[in-house]
Amino acid sequence: MYTMRPATPGDRSTITELVAARYRWMRDNWIDTSSIDRESACNLAGSSGEDGRPLVWLLHDGPQLLGCTVLLDALQDYGWTTAHRRESSLLMFGTFSHPAHSGDQAWRWMSWWAVDYASRIQGVLWLRKLIRSHRLMCQARDQHGWDLVDTVIHHGRRAHLMQRRVAPVPRLDQFISPAPLTANAAAS
Question: N or C: which end of the chain has fewer CB within 10 A?
Answer without folding.
Answer: C
